[in-house]
Amino acid sequence: MYGPPGGQPRPLGTPVYVSRPWSVAHAVPVVPGMPSGWGPVPGVVHTVPITWRPAETRSARWIVPPVAPEQLRAPRDSQYRPPQMGPALATPADSREATMTTETSGGTSPHGSSQSSNSARVASPDTAAETSLTMTEQAGSPQALQKRSVSNLLQNAFGTDVGQKAAEPVKPLETQPDPVPSSSTLAARHRDQPGLAFFADAFVAGEDEAHLERGCRATVKMHELPAAGRQPDLEDSGEAEWPLWTDPWRSESEAARGGATVFVPSGAGVGSPCMYFVHGGGFEWGSPLEDGYDSLCSRIAEGSGMIVVCPDHPLSGENRSFKAPAILDALVKGLRWLVRFDPVAKERRAEVPQILLAGDSAGATQAMSILLQVLAEDALELQSPLRGLVLISPWLDLTCGSHTYVSNAFSAEAHTGDLAFRSPADENRAGFRGMALTYAGSAGLLKDCIVSPYWLARDGRGESTDVLRKLEKSGLPIWICSGASETLAGEVLDFVQRLSGKVPMELWLHEGMFHDWVMYATDRPFPSKEAAMRNLMDFLTDVRESSWKRRGIQYYIDEWK
């Protein structure tokens, strides 16, 4: 922080070098007026020591009367420039232009394709500190500054003759230009990008749903199951019927629910691989055609060539009698229909299909619960077609014990934390626990390894040990993406770390992203969404071609525009 004596402190344009994306405390933003007693933020490393000019050589001309904060302006290049904390001091205009040109030019993506200004840095946890936040050595970078002496820095700041520059009169502050941003890494600037501010302002204004991406893709055909007038084979004895149910929350004309919606991409037909996608909504809301799921499912179908089947499964909630065991039974029954019948021909299959389970948010919880229940029951008919699992922003721990319910609480002032859940931390956790208890039906199921999959990794005894052993033996790969700033990030990361080496998994943590960000759209560049979808398509392709390899935990750090 710096500023004239008696004036309002100002934050420094400090590049932040982060060894891990989540290590910077979101709850301690550097804002005007922050007390000076705050200690260093974890994960921030200043690679160049701060050298202050000796007090006896400072000129009284540099001391100005106290002014209002809005009057403060950065000095011109020819006048005194206070030293900035961190390795990147203000650089000449030509150096700044070179820096910005380097950072905003196209680059090579992790997938080998050329990217625009939204190009991201990707690194595994073992190499993140070395590779994910590196930048080209140039004027203003830490590497260049380490090679320059303190006298050169002073000469650059004050001019050739320091005494002569100090003797020149200081122009009134109101005539000074607006500050010029100093060079910094993409990670240091990502929290202050217009795209993130756009969503924050829109969500705070209650316009969350207005920015959900909606509508089925033009190249994808959509139809509903079961088809009118068709009955399952008598030999199935109802085991493979799509469950029908009545929703008391809806009007009489819309109360009849059940079945599924099928998204068929061009080129797909009888025998094509399928994805069984369970929609989210806190276990209490949503349907295959609401809240943007038609857009998400059709996009997955279009990009992967797979047929996506999204069940309209029973929901829990007030005045509804459905609880976790009954809801999971209904979802397993729908999976059994998909294993036995082709969703395009609507006839019994001649061959065993390829099926991937998937879901988002609470639906991701249920998708994993389906897999674990199938394994626990040794249902080989349902297990043999399964090829993998896709979890988008999953809610894995129904006890809601992770620290990120608090540490990732939303801050309207700093535009940090989870934009999707903006209640105070304690209220946020209480709301999640209320939905979890309503869904489970009893507190005893909140730590059940099938209903609450996090406890598969945490419990380590009884049924969870047996189910985990079966999951390891199955060898099914699990792909997960989560926002590093979302409420559920802590339990997701802990879950993956605990099962590392036992279950083949690939986790993508996206810096700055909020819960279910892939469901939203803006006319501004949204690189994290595109990257998440691209990584998902790569996973689906690799699984279908049996070429997938473990990637562990990956961190996606991008620049908002």
From TrEMBL:
Stored SUPFAM superfamilies: alpha/beta-Hydrolases
Tagged with keyword Acyltransferase: no
Keyword presence, Transport: no
Region listing for Disordered, in residue ranges: 69-146, 162-186
Superkingdom field: Eukaryota
Coiled coil: none
Keyword list, A-Z: Hydrolase
Protein name: Alpha/beta hydrolase fold-3 domain-containing protein
Phylogenetic classification of the source organism: Eukaryota, Sar, Alveolata, Dinophyceae, Suessiales
